[in-house]
Design a protein that fits this description.
globular; 17 strands; 304 residues; alpha+beta; single chain; 5 helices; ten-stranded mixed beta sheet; 28% strand
């Protein structure tokens, strides 16, 4: 039985934002993160998941993750722990993704999006990016799919918000403010790195049965996608359709969302601690050294 949230607003939105960190190499190997049109050229046994290959953590990615946690006021974990998220799909050749589940690098925190509004955060965690799936004739028409593993293993920082945005415009403003912070603290390059958002959205009429809209790029697109999804849910409710938790893809070209599957739960992924990556201590001295390298944040300037 799904427990319904205690909301009173007409629309409820939470975001899961995947930020590609501006490092020279991937999260667990020395392959370049440089963009290239030649597919499957920046790969090695580690990011392709060959038997016997061992991942080695990229320290710069950890530095950048700590920077963002400090900027957003997160509580930083004392230990860095990685897990294997098990799933079978062509974009992850080893059939699991290395991510953080049990203990994320940062928890709580907040981001102010206006004088009257701030959005709370649940967590921020490091993980590797899956490969790129290329549909030559479009996602719903291609008779085959191509896989480019150049992107597989690039460092991502996932930021999960609380469901505290109540309109597509607020979600757009959150993305805009976040990108400003990312650029300011020097961990993201808009010309080189990718930022994507998965949006969880529900409306009051359905009892807040949410849909997750995957892989929306840019703050303008997120408002467009969520406006469509609000109208889609209202129309389906008026037509008496049954609502279930589901995952949908945003088709930017046609301006619609399409169901790709019913929603998985975290238990479906069978997380286990990654035995190839030892637990790493995040010391106070390390955090202080990162803090000294950061520019003065906007909120600190306001206080002065």
């Amino acid at each position: 039985m799904i427990k319904k949230p205690n909301f009173t607003t007409d629309i409820v939105i939470g975001l899961e934002i995947h930020v590609e960190l501006n490092t020279n190499t991937k999260l667990f190997c020395s392959c370049s993160t440089e963009n290239t049109e030649e597919p499957n050229t920046h790969t090695c046994p580690v990011c392709l998941g060959h038997p016997g290959s061992k991942p080695v953590l990229n320290k710069k990615a950890v530095d950048f993750a700590v920077r963002l946690c400090l900027a957003l006021g997160c509580t930083i974990s004392r230990n860095l722990i990685f897990s294997r998220k098990n799933y079978f799909y062509p974009d992850m050749s080893k059939n699991y993704q290395i991510t953080q589940y049990e203990v994320p690098i940062g928890t709580e925190g907040k981001l102010r999006i206006s004088d009257e509004k701030e959005v709370g955060l649940v967590r921020a965690h490091l993980e590797e990016d899956p490969a790129s799936l290329v549909h030559p004739a479009g996602m719903h028409s291609s008779p085959f799919v191509l896989v480019d593993y150049n992107r597989s293993g690039r460092p991502l920082l996932e930021i999960v918000t609380k469901p505290e945005m109540y309109s597509p415009a607020e979600a757009r403003d959150f993305m805009r403010k976040l990108i400003t912070v990312l650029n300011y603290i020097g961990i993201f390059d808009q010309d080189h790195c990718i930022i994507k958002a998965d949006a969880n959205i529900s409306i009051k009429e359905t009892g807040y049965v949410r849909s997750e809209v995957k892989n929306i790029t840019g703050f303008k697109e997120i408002e467009r996608a969520l406006k469509y999804e609000v109208e889609r849910q209202k129309k389906d409710f008026e037509e008496g359709k049954k609502f279930v938790l589901d995952t949908r893809a945003w088709d930017a070209e046609n301006g619609v969302t399409r169901r790709i599957r019913t929603k998985e739960t975290e238990e479906d992924y069978g997380y286990i601690l990654d035995p190839d990556l030892v637990i790493t201590e995040i010391t106070d001295d390390f955090v202080e050294s990162i803090k000294k390298e950061m520019p003065e944040l906007a909120q600190d300037k306001v206080i002065k």
